[in-house]
Amino acid sequence: TLFVAAIAARVSTTDPRDSPYFKGTSAMAYRHMLMVADGQSIMAHDTRAGHPDGYVPALYRASGAETITGLAYRAVRAVSDIDGRPFTRRMVILIASLCVFTLYSLSSRLWNSRGAGLLAAFLVAFLPALVSATNGRTFSHAIFAGFFASLYAVIALRALPASPRILPVLAALAAIPLLWVWEPARYGIAAWVIAVALAPAVDRRTRIVFVLAHALVVVIAAVVIVMVVVVHRNRGSRAVVRRRAVRPGHLGRRDVRR
């Protein structure tokens, strides 16, 4: 199948002589993934990076890709001794290859043609630039965003112009992992919801359920984010005060003389 071919195409482009280490933002994402795999909270203040005051990884950028990969690595590590880097690369390849299914379904729906779906799946599997960008050499949020965005689009389009109530709700639920892995998704989803709300061709009941379900997701996410920010900002402030209190420059004269 094209799914297996997509995996094979990506694996075949990797060179064993390449450096096994991630670079740049991929290295930072990999470090966050290991924190999740080791049971450390990425919502806690991390003082081992972001010198001198540290930072909170989950507040610094979207953390869905690292969390999903970290939890999967923790599960696999329980039954295997695989190293984190090769596992992460395989996870990236798997997520990218899964786009074969979502892009096939999305293209078939948009053009009402199975041929269009097969063409999209073929391009996902073999387009050289895409294969090179998703062969596991980089640990990028965009790769996860591509899968979850296409999954969201498939469900959202199936919910329109008329459908059972469950499909608009499922579309709103599919928006959660997309927002979790990719920051700019909020703008695209907001524009899409507004377009649906104003579209006269969409069934009125479906339109109401679609908009309300997405609004509920946004409200819940906003409340959770505010709570997390407040809690960890307070913790981070206390941690900074404690670290500054023990620096030599903050010691009294008597302590320095000693």
The DSSP helix count reads 12
How does the overall form come out from the CA principal axes?
flat
Low-confidence stretches: 250-258
In round numbers, the mean pLDDT is: 85
Order of helices and strands: HHHHHHHHHHHH
Helix-strand blueprint:
Blueprint: H1 2-12, H2 25-37, H3 57-60, H4 64-77, H5 84-111, H6 114-126, H7 128-133, H8 141-158, H9 166-181, H10 185-198, H11 204-245, H12 253-257
Descriptive account of the structure:
With 258 residues, the chain is mainly alpha-helical. It contains twelve helices and no strands. It has helices at 2-12, 25-37, 57-60, 64-77, 84-111, 114-126, 128-133, 141-158, 166-181, 185-198, 204-245, 253-257. α10 (185-198) runs antiparallel to α11 (204-245). The longest helix is centred in the last third of the chain and has 42 residues, at 204-245. It starts with a helix and ends with a helix.
